[in-house]
Amino acid sequence: MIRVLVVDDDALALELHSAYVGRVPGFEVVGQAAGARAALTAITDPDRSIDLVLLDMTMPDGTGLDVARRVRAIGSGVDIIAVTAVRDAATVRAAVSIGVVQYLIKPFAFAAFRERLEAYRAYVEGLNRAAGDATQSEVDALLGSLRTVAAPTLPKGLSDETLRAVAARVRTAAGAVSSTEVGESEGMSRVTARRYLEHLADAGRVRREPRYGGQGRPEITYAWVRG
């Protein structure tokens, strides 16, 4: 089993990503950390024997890059997959330079998460099979296993452009918003807006919140999950 530490300062994301790990054969969560200091403590704990860290890039007490640099400075060879909403080129470049093996951008669905972990597992299995000096083809195959990940696909009828617009609407809202409010602001029906909002909720990027008022069942609203 590949032993995984999940690091995220958002409690919902921490639990969601841990649950995702549990759904991928060959992986087990052996720890959770809600900040940079807690992550370093867990990684350096010899009793944990962590193989892989799923590392957020933005935390109140330090960045994921800080954690990764410290880990490398103490000589740890633990593998790191960045799981973050941070997508600027400088951060990605810095992550690659310190040995981050995968970079998964939030929001994402479980399928995209599973593909990254399965690609990493193939890489580990290839390393375990290797013996002595590797040939060029073996090296190419090992490195290629980390990069042969299919692009995640949206459910039928959803588009990337509209998903980004809906996500931006929720992210910049002062509070939770309903599918009706999103539909009116983005020029789409309430039903269509709700499909996109539910997709974001399933991916862990928004949370559902009931809005009470008047008689009958409460209205479901959506609030952005920070981090």
From TrEMBL:
Gene3D superfamilies (UniProt xref): 3.40.50.2300
Modified sites of kind 4-aspartylphosphate: 56
Compartments in which it is found: Cytoplasm
SUPFAM superfamilies per record: CheY-like (SSF52172), Winged helix' DNA-binding domain (SSF46785)
Chain ranges of the Response regulatory domain: 3-121
InterPro entries attached to this UniProt entry: 2C-system_Tx_regulators, CheY-like_superfamily, Sig_transdc_resp-reg_cit/mal, Sig_transdc_resp-reg_receiver, WH_DNA-bd_sf
Keywords: Activator, Cytoplasm, DNA-binding, Phosphoprotein, Transcription, Transcription regulation, Two-component regulatory system
PANTHER family cross-referenced by the UniProt entry: TRANSCRIPTIONAL REGULATORY PROTEIN DCUR-RELATED, TRANSCRIPTIONAL REGULATORY PROTEIN DPIA
Protein name listed in UniProt: Transcriptional regulatory protein
Protein species of origin: Microbacterium algihabitans
